[in-house]
Structures are given as C-alpha cells and as structure tokens.
Amino acid sequence: MASFVQYLGHAGFIVQHGGVKILIDPWFHSAFLHSWFPYPDNRHLLSEVRSERFNYLYVSHAHEDHYDERLLRMLDRSVTVIAPKYRSKGMVRRFHGLGFGNVIALDHQESHELTPGFVATMYLDTSHKEDSGLLLDMNGFRLLDLNDCNTPMSELPKQVDLLAAQFSGAMWYPGCYDYPPEVMQKKVDSVRHALMDTLYRKVKLTNAKAYIPSAGPPCFLDPVLERHNDRQRTIFPQWEDVADAFRKACPHVEVLRIYPGDSVRIEGARPVVDRMSGARTHEDVREYRQRRRDEWGEFYAAPESPITSDEIAGYFSRLQRRNNHLLQDFHKDIRLSSGGRLWSIRLGGTAEPLVIEGEEQNEPEYTIVLSPRVLRALLDGGTGWEEALLSMRLALHREPDVFDLRFMSLLRYGDEPVQTLQLVRDQSVTETIERDGLRMQRFCPHAGEDLTHAIIRDGIIECPRHHWQWDARTGKCLAGGNLRLRVEVLEVERTDPEIEEGA
Ligand code: FES
To answer: pTM of the entire structure?
Structure first.
C-alpha cells in the first residue's frame, strides 16, 4: 500500500496513508503585516486544498506562515485538528475560536492513531517557546516534520526515514538591526552557518535517511522590503545556495528537492519523487509582486490614526503588570521612534513604566524605529511584537550590541504570560550534567536546549541550537546574549589545563 507526501510549499504538506489524509501547515496568503509570501508561489494549489476533504489538520504553531487564518476559515470545520498542547493552550483556543469542534491536543511525545498503521506523535519545543513538529509513522516508514521547531536534541526521535526541516532563516535577526554592511554580513554568515549546523545535527541525531528542504525561505513582495530577497546577503538562502555544504556534511543522506505540487511516493522503504507537471520552481519577483499587488498593498490600506503618549504608557503599563514575574531586578531604557516622534520609556521593577515624549538624557539600550501604521497595529492588538519583528517592517538598534532575553521576551511573549512564567522557571532549573571535566547546568539558559550536546573546546562551551557561547571556567556569556551559565570545573580535571571537545 503506497503512501503519499504532497508538498504544498514552505512547510505545507498533505500526507496520505491507509485512506486517511492529513493536511499540515498549509500557507497561501501574506503573513506578518502582509510582508511574507510563499516562495515559489503556490497559489495554483489553493483551490485543491479548499475543496479537498481531509480527515486531519495539523498546524505546528501560531506563526502566520504556518497558521494561515485566511485559509483555515475556508476549510471544512468537521476535520479533526491535531494541535500541540502548549502551556498557554493558545492553539486549541484559536481553533475553537474558528469553529473547529474536533480538536485533539497532544503533549510532548504523545501519540494518536489516525487509522490502523498510521500514528502521529507530537514533538514540542519544551522551553518557553511554543513550536512543534510531528512524527508520522506509516506502517514503519517514519516521516518527521520538524518545520522550524527546535525540540531539545536529546529528545528527537531516532530511525527517521524522511526528515522535513528548515535550512533557511525565519527570524528578524540580524536583518532588522542597523548594522553597517560589513558587520551585517558577518552576522548573516554566522546565522547561516548556525542554521546549517543545527540542521546537520538534527539529521544525524534522527538518523534521517532522506531530507526534504522546507519551511523557507519566504519572499518579500512589498518593494520597501525588497532587500530581504537577496539570497546571499540575508539569512534567507535558497536550497541551491547551501546544497553543496549539506552534501559534504551529510553525504549519505538523499535530498528530495521538491516544489509546490510535487509528491513523494513511499513504496516499501523508499521515497520516490513524482513531479507535478508545470510545478513552479522559481519566481520572477517583479511578476509575483504584480500578481499579489492587492495583497501586500493591504498593509497600506488601513487609515493612519494619531498616536498619543497615554496610549503608549497604557500599553507598556499593561504589558509590565501582566509580566511582573519577569521584571524583578530588571530595568531598561528604550526609545520608540515613529513618524518623527520619540518616546523614551523606562521599563522594569515594580513601578509603572515611565513614558516621556521627546529627547531624554539617558541613552537608551534599545531603540525601535517603526512606522505609525505598525505602532498602531501593536497598540490596538492587531499584531504582536513577534509578528511585527518578523515583518521586517521595523528597525532596531541596541547599545551595547547584546541580546537581552528578558526584554525581548517581554515584547515577544508578554501577551501570553504563561510563556514568560515558564522562562523564569527555566532559569531556576538546577539539573546539572558532567562533561569534559565540567559540571554545568543541563539546559541552555536561552531556550532550554539540552547541553549534553554542547560543543566544548578551547575553554568555551557552545550551545548547539543558537550557538551562544560561555567561558567554561566562569560561565560568563561570551556571545549570543547576556545570561550566565552555571558551571564549575571538576576537581579531577584540574591537572589538565586544556578543556577539549567532547564526544
Ligand atoms: S537554546 Fe538558544 S543558544 Fe541555547
């Protein structure tokens, strides 16, 4: 009995086995303030997806390039939704809100039989972040769809036949920052290297036999965002830009380079690609921009309304009150610049945030430049900071040039305080591991990666996920952010002056 995996573009798939079909992360419409579009264009598949009857629907997380609400509203509501069971219950709430009555929420590593011989198992990012992947076992053939999810490496499933995972970036760093060109290029190169390194590890740890490049890159159709389509100077490469490096790092892994509409037929243990005739393999961005003019133009359609200092004070006051647990011992001066106006804002502690319009004496640590349209959407709750950042429609400057986890988490997750609460809990986990003559905290203080897989060499500990680095003797953060790592050098190793790379 053959099984089929049809690719819908980006992170979207239809998987069929034993007469049951599951639709995964279907994305067709603009995302993040109308800035992201699928690449290549996959609109030729939309009518098929709208009219098809699916048994199951799985959406990995709330980012709009996975959770396409416009498309979801077009689907038959009787489909059974497989949802990740996040602490916030956010995904389940969203689906109920859209009128989907059958929602099965699966916890980390929890399984559900879709039909005999077809089993879905959920894999969560177990940190404060809310993201998930799905393992589909089809009579022993194991497809792992990790999209851009980072499940701790020690908890990834093994013996995977086919892995679908990201290779291209899906974040605003460093693109939103105002770095000079040569600094920007270094940072871009470093992120691209880190993305591929993480992919190699996922491939090796899951023993993947074959790999589908997926979950990116997007395309930016609004002309003001055109620079983000540069595949060399951004964190958004196409597969062809990284394929040689992948082949060298993972020579025994078969790469299935497929395009929207193509399918993978699974017969026995072997995946075979069936090409869709006329599948789009690339785009002329100018033509694509013309075709979707009305859609990216929606960003400019809403009328601009004046913003008051009271609205800004009220917004940050609410955000701060809901996340007091995150802001103990925290103070930060930030500046908002929008439409020729400036607001200086002092955040942190238990007091109300101080908001003053006009120039301030204190040099802010973060400056956020954004259009009144984006600021209006944030203040009215039409979008969140995570989406606004991903839209690339704002610019950031930080002084010093260090990522502040608490501040960025306040913005990104502050609307779901259960996430910031988890971040605080993660910081207090005391579990340790011993490796290479060191006793250190087991989970990365950034986003909970299991440091059992850390790279330790030349006196530096490096997290394998986002590659923050710490001094192995002091725990001081050397690169990536501003959080220390709890680490001590073990007695027995003190005679050895070098801390070498571990297994
Ligand atoms: S989880 Fe991000 S650097 Fe460790």
So the answer is: 0.93
